[in-house]
Design goal:
Distance between the termini: 86 Å
Low-confidence stretches: 1-24
Structural class: alpha/beta
Oligomer: single chain
Number of domains: 2
Strand content: 15-25%
CATH superfamily of the largest domain: Response regulator
CATH architecture of the largest domain: 3-Layer(aba) Sandwich
Shape: globular
Mean pLDDT: 92
């Protein structure tokens, strides 16, 4: 009888323990984040990649017990609105999130133009924003106090391609100043910052652009540019127009049978150039903020490769995980870290914690400068070789050499 009573007591205790555990999980509070994110319009593709990154990280963090503040737990939840890839709409929606939906912490939209539009609003309301998708250097020169960006700024994106071209010229016994550069950029803050980085790199080496054009606003037809490229035969071709500009450029390079030995293009992955234009994209050199072979890790996501594998399992449509997705997940992790160190949900206390962020992640180290940027973040260059992305720079992380000239097979 005593034995039966003991068993009953043990079962009762176990049931109570399980009930308490379940109750504790159910009793977690909610940290509401808000985001205006492109579900339609020219930025829709990367808007979707960004949302996938946010949601992947939120699920992983929530499933692991959420955010611990004191003796309480909190789960992340995001309220999304479609900014329609329109800056004015993004600003309106952030105003709505803060003033009507009572959102006290904001996630960034996709792209520099969208972010440029929302920052005056978040500053007005003293609402902290951590963004992972806007690289324009100009966003960090306005004196904003509530803006934190984790990614490498845009002037770094294509400058390594100039270095590659100079190296090849010197191997051929030519001066750096002899390198002929043709470039075309979208007329937006991100792409113009990319261009400025290239211009500064060329100036240091005595190079003047052979062609320096702007894309049309609809990004649909670059025929005039490629006609000049064919006639002037540059050594290097540089293209920055987000995913639509990259796709248009790749398609029309094929149509015009454009043969340039070194080609640098932003947004290769999200433009799906390997899938849609495999022959033309061969040899493209593409900047990325993140690669699964990077030596970066953290306790939540593990290594960069572990994140890559888990994201592919969650999203089988990704043959290559876009860096936009990885950096979006890293932004959520930065928020988790800041809330836990703040030990509070007070906006100003959390902002002070963000200022002191010094966090290793699977995406790279995050440590904010006074201007809210993450200056330690570097750009990784990958070249499309045999239909796969191969890291070719910087040398410390390169998996192989640059193929030069690129193999053209139209």
């Amino acid at each position: 009888m005593t034995s039966n009573h003991g068993i009953a007591a043990a079962l009762a205790a176990l049931a109570l323990s399980c009930s308490a555990g379940t109750s504790q999980a159910a009793d977690c509070g909610t940290i509401n984040l808000g985001a205006a994110l492109s579900a339609t319009g020219i930025y829709a593709s990367n808007g979707n990649n960004t949302r996938n990154g946010y949601e992947f990280a939120i699920k992983k963090i929530n499933d692991a017990g959420g955010v611990k503040i004191g003796d309480k737990c909190y789960h992340f939840k995001v309220t999304y609105y479609d900014d329609e890839s329109t800056p004015a709409r993004a600003a309106q929606l952030i105003e709505r999130l803060i003033s009507q939906d009572n959102i006290k912490f904001v996630l960034g939209p996709y792209s520099s133009p969208m972010t440029k539009a929302i920052l005056p609003v978040t500053e007005k309301y003293k609402t902290p924003v951590v963004q992972a998708e806007a690289a324009s250097r100009s966003l960090f020169t306005q004196g904003y106090k509530y803006h934190f960006g984790i990614i490498a700024t845009s002037e770094k994106y294509l400058t390594p391609v100039i270095d590659m071209a100079i190296e090849q010229a010197k191997k051929a016994g030519r001066a750096a100043s002899s390198v002929k550069v043709a470039m075309i950029f979208q007329d937006d803050s991100f792409s113009l910052d990319v261009r400025q980085g290239v211009v500064d790199a060329m100036k240091k080496n005595g190079i003047t652009a052979t062609i320096d054009d702007r894309m049309p606003k609809d990004l649909n037809d670059l025929t005039a540019f490629f006609t000049k490229v064919k006639a002037l035969k540059p050594d290097v071709l540089l293209i920055s127009g987000h995913e639509k500009g990259a796709a248009t450029a790749a398609r029309q390079m094929g149509e015009h049978k454009t043969d340039v030995p070194l080609v640098g293009v932003t947004h290769c992955e999200s433009a799906k150039v390997v899938k849609d234009f495999p022959k033309i994209a061969e040899g493209f050199v593409c900047p990325t903020q993140w690669d699964e072979t990077m030596k970066a890790s953290d306790p939540m996501f593990g290594t960069a490769m572990n994140y890559n594998n888990e994201m592919k399992a969650a999203h089988p449509e990704y043959k290559t995980v876009p860096y936009q997705t990885a950096q979006a997940s890293a932004a959520i992790y930065v928020w988790k870290d800041a809330f836990q160190r703040a030990g509070s949900l007070d906006q100003e206390t959390v902002r002070q914690a963000l200022i002191k962020t010094d966090l290793p992640t699977f995406y790279g180290h995050v440590k904010f400068d006074e201007d809210g940027s993450n200056p330690g973040k570097t750009i990784v260059m990958r070249q499309i070789q045999d239909g796969k992305y191969v890291v070719v720079a910087p040398p410390a992380v390169a998996a192989g050499p640059v193929v030069y000239p690129r193999a053209v097979n139209y």
